[in-house]
Specification:
Length: 661
């Protein structure tokens, strides 16, 4: 069996050939690939990684793309340039909390050093150049022979080949950051450095392959199965590189499922502001009704987009993250001819009809507007809060509580939301600790009493949360089977007593921040009926109608009770049905199609008029017809006869007749 496996691998290797190096800008397709790339350059090359989060519908993204590619080619071998399409790789943009495009991230040694949004070429070039210059120190390789030679000269007692092999194995194969750190320690201890070679991991793949073949000698038949597998993996990776290069060099752009908005001559029938579950559900329903809705929102997908953990409470969805659900919703809406304008809405004018919607670059009109901009969780804004989101820090106990079954968790807050979260968590967690900054709850008496009487819930009064702390934990990767990826996982919460100032800590696996939500309604403030907290108030007839006819509200923008993806999607469907019914009642159809049909009718009528007989219009003046003069036919010639009265036939005619014969 061993021989068969080796032969099969060898056959594959013979068919495989080494190909060109990676494209100048590598397109990252999923979170596992993103994490693997960051880890590889942290451990093997030390090169900085620059990531461009972009969208095809983003004007500044398209403007800076040629310059970004040019910079990548100029700095090849000094920095790694990548790109992430937020419409396709939503798990990456969700995990990184990307909120606008283009956004550039800069990584060095596995850590994010800087991030900025906008098309600023100077800042982009400055950070890339600075990190590349700093990374030059990692372009070193300490070989076994050179280390032995160094020890012979400086510490002969250290020459132990087994320990030297172990030391180099820890430093990493081929050179890089591990070798740099080892050399730094040797220099500090002995006051000198061993002889070094360039980092082998930075070599061109063709060059590296030739070196490995020269070192191994003629050996495909002598190679072990593991060596053949490693070689096959290298060549398959190189083949993928070739495909990436061809895709980059091709003039054909990748076909996106999203159709982008182009302003027409007539008002749109339905405009949906927001692209979370509510907005996308409304888009699907409106599009299937033939209304061709326009979804106006950055390609972020609301709070669900930011959930990197698995969603387990959405029917018929299992083993899927929030960003993937949003991506599927977008694709489904696009298939039914929804169009997208990926910009933030600055203002909506409801004072005249059709309504006017303004973004930072576009102004258009719509007969109906569905508001589905959601509500953002209030956060504490303390150290570690952003870092451990998705790794223990959450704002939704209903969504994420079950993930921490039989574990100790905390809830931060003292209102109704905090009480509800604590009671929900007490059903599944082993212990719940409520952290509140005052000596009494501001929640309703009934909820507060239920919390205080629950044996699994403990309350820490007069405490504020000052810091979240955790550790790296290896979890199975979403990518290749058997691989793991490290995530930041919460372990400790730091507290401070509001009365004494005394510091303390509490161990837990999850912390739920329950200090309220902020509805995203600033841009329509004062134009619609809202409550004191800024939530849009519906008419109260069970529909999604607001205080203005033709304006509807769906999702968390009008829901401060449930705030779930599934309830938002349901209200989005309701809003689309309400909008469709309102358009029908007002007699508003597809104005562009109607105008086109009217023009066609006029053209057909004109053509029919021209074809009618003039006799149908007896009173109409008619130009008299001019008769063509008749040509007189020549008189027949009388036959010529001789003296005997016989017809004389000319000789020419006889000759002609003879010729015909």
């Amino acid at each position: 069996m061993f021989g068969t496996a080796t032969a099969s691998l060898a056959a594959l290797l013979v068919c495989s050939t080494l190909v060109a190096a990676r494209p100048a800008v590598r397109n990252l397709k999923n979170l596992a690939e993103f994490n693997k790339l960051i880890k590889h350059h942290k451990e093997n090359t030390g090169l900085p990684v620059i990531v461009d989060f972009y969208s095809d519908g983003c004007g500044p993204c398209r403007q800076i793309a040629p310059m970004y590619k040019k910079m990548a080619k100029a700095m090849k071998g000094k920095a790694v340039f990548t790109k992430v399409d937020v419409n396709f790789a939503r798990d990456i943009s969700g995990a990184q909390q990307i909120r606008s495009m283009p956004t550039f991230q800069f990584y060095s040694m596995g850590k994010k050093k800087h991030q900025f949004s906008g098309g600023d070429p100077n800042q982009l070039q400055q950070w890339a150049q600075n990190l590349a210059t700093d990374a030059e120190k990692y372009n070193v390789q300490l070989t076994k022979d050179n280390l032995i030679a160094f020890y012979k000269e400086n510490a002969p007692d250290k020459i132990d080949e087994a320990k030297i092999d172990e030391l180099l194995a820890k430093a990493g194969e081929g050179g890089g950051p591990g070798h740099y750190k080892l050399v730094k320690k040797l220099n500090k201890k002995y006051g000198k450095k061993p002889e070094l070679l360039p980092n082998e991991n930075l070599m061109d793949k063709d060059e590296k392959k030739k070196k490995e073949e020269a070192k191994a000698g003629p050996g495909i038949k002598k190679a072990t199965t593991e060596e053949l597998k490693a070689e096959l993996e290298l060549r398959m990776e190189a083949e993928q590189d070739k495909k990436d290069q061809e895709a980059e060099d091709s003039d054909e752009e990748e076909v996106s499922p999203i159709k982008f908005f182009s302003k027409g001559d007539y008002a749109e029938r339905v405009a949906i502001v927001g692209a979370g579950p509510a907005g996308l559900a409304a888009a699907i329903y409106a599009a299937r009704a033939g209304l061709r809705p326009v979804v106006v929102a950055p390609p972020m997908g609301g709070q669900l987009q930011g959930k990197g953990v698995m969603v387990e409470n959405y029917p018929a969805v299992a083993g899927v993250t929030g960003p993937m659900i949003v991506a599927d919703m977008v694709k489904q809406a696009a298939e039914f001819e929804t169009v997208f304008l990926q910009e933030l809405v600055d203002e909506v004018d409801f004072s005249s009809r059709p309504f006017t919607i303004k973004t930072n670059t576009t102004t258009f009109q719509a007969h109906t507007v569905i508001l589905s901009t959601g509500a953002d969780s209030r956060w504490l804004g303390i150290e570690g809060e952003h870092k451990y989101r998705g790794g223990g820090v959450s704002s939704c106990a209903t969504c994420d509580g079950f993930l921490y079954k039989d574990q100790e968790v905390i809830v931060i807050g003292g209102g109704d939301t905090a009480m509800e979260d604590a009671l929900v968590l007490a059903r599944t967690s082993s212990k719940v600790t409520v952290i509140h900054r005052r000596d009494s709850f501001r929640a309703s008496h009934v909820l507060a009493q239920r919390v205080l009487q629950n044996d699994k819930i403990e309350v820490l009064w007069n405490k504020t949360t000052v810091k979240f702390e955790g550790e790296k934990v290896a979890l199975p990767s979403d990518g290749t089977e058997g691989e793991t990826e490290e995530i930041d996982s919460l372990t400790t919460v730091h507290l401070k007593d509001t009365a004494t100032g005394e510091a303390s800590t509490i161990k837990c696996t999850a912390a739920f921040v329950a200090i309220g939500h902020i509805p995203n309604t600033k841009f329509v403030e004062g134009k619609l009926t809202m409550d004191k907290q800024g939530y849009v108030v519906a008419k109260g007839d069970g529909s999604t109608k607001t205080s203005i006819e033709g304006v509807f509200a769906a999702g968390d923008v009008a829901d401060k009770v449930y705030r779930q993806a599934i309830t938002s999607a349901g209200s989005g469907a309701m809003a689309a049905l309400d909008a469709e019914r309102w358009l029908s009642e007002e007699g508003i159809g597809d104005e562009a199609a109607e105008a086109e049909a009217e023009m066609m009718r006029e053209l057909l009528a004109e053509a029919a008029m021209e074809e009618r007989e003039e006799t149908e219009y007896p009173d109409t003046y008619k130009e008299p017809k001019k008769e063509e003069p008749k040509k007189e036919e020549p008189a027949a010639e009388e036959p010529t006869v001789d003296d005997n009265g016989e017809e004389i036939v000319e000789e020419v005619e006889e000759e002609a007749a003879h010729t015909e014969l």
